[in-house]
Amino acid sequence: MTTTVDALFDISALVSDEEREWQMRARDFAQTRIRPIIDQAFEDRRLPVELLPEVGELGAFGMYLHGYGLPGASSVAYGLVAMEFEAVDSGFRTALSVQGSLVMGAIWKFGSEEQKQTWLPRMGRGEAIGCFGLTEPQGGSDPNTMLTSARRDGDEWVLNGAKRWIGLATIAEVAVIWAKDEEGVVRGFVVPTETPGFTATAIENKLSMRASLQCEIELTDVRLPADAMLPEARGLSAPFKCLNEARYGIVWGAMGAARDCLEVGVERAQTREVFGTPIGGKQLTQAKLADCFVEYEKGLLLALHLGRQKDAGTLTHGQISVGKLNSVREAIAIAGTVRSILGGDGITSEFPVMRHMANLESVRTYEGTDEVHQLVIGRELTGLAAF
Fold first, then answer.
1. Does one domain contain both 120 and 200?
2. How would you class 151 by CB atoms within 10 Å of its CB: exposed for 0-12, middle for 13-18, buried for 19 or more?
3. Which residue of the set 156, 267, 367, 380 is catalytic?
4. Torsion angle of alpha carbons 48, 86, 38, 216, nearest 10°?
5. Helix 75-86 × helix 17-29 angle, to 10°
6. Which residues contact 383 (CB under 8 A, 6 or more apart)?
7. Residue 93: CATH number of its domain
8. Nearest-5° angle of CA 214, CA 216, CA 218?
9. Residue 129 has what pLDDT?
10. pTM to 2 decimals?
11. What is the SS3 assignment for 214?
């Protein structure tokens, strides 16, 4: 299964056979199981939750983690899977990221052995879904303003507060909730969602990520045993490490959306005729496609470079910001350019381009806005914090 874009830029020469196999399996799943239903799911504002157990069977949840029945694949392999999922829809790749990078990543990095044994095997198989409660209504890009509190009461913790824009919360069996203890230190807690006082409500009025699931969480005197706390998580650096994992997936994923738009643009340029010839034979159209392809190829090479650094243990948060900023910004530009090639038809659901454009606006916002990543990069360059 080779695409036009693949043929011009053959990434298979740059990845291992195992990494390529992961990509091809993910592509087959995305194209045969997700694509046929994603447009209607977007219209219906519905995440195709029935496919999540199949993602578990594929082995893609937490696939780069080791132990607990997880595949222990390379970070590059995971990036390729994220790219294939997002080539169909950003929202479905988001589910992969929330489950595998945020929730499973938090438990794997900071959890007790009991927490890991309890949740990671089931989550890896897709038998249990999780959510990651960090962002708050008043906080946005500044989680240090966190109001959610964790108070010790004898042998229990009592959580109170609210979270917003939390993926998968209404279908989750477990939540990783971040709260400030009585000393003002951010702590993570493993919260079964059936715990009294935990309420999740889907956000319904979205014009982006409609085939995805984002929610609000209310925590009202949620009582947890002492061992619900993630023992190795202390301070905001803990959730930030989880966010870096998710941002890394976006570096690849956004290039998947860009590739899908490019494929649509190339096919349309070959088949649509104006003034007696295909529009692909016009210089301006070829220039647009060429410029889009160059940015796609550069973005994919950057993703691959970052993936190799991640596997080598040398990837920094500043470098992740470079990748996230570039990939999403260029994917949005590519989608917009392809939409112009499609003309008026480009705004219809006959083509996936407007859906990608709308979704990418959300991807641009979550896991750090463009402005946040610009400031992270600026700090790295100058040594001066501007936020």
1. no
2. middle
3. 367
4. 50
5. 20
6. none
7. 1.10.540.10
8. 155
9. 98
10. 0.95
11. strand
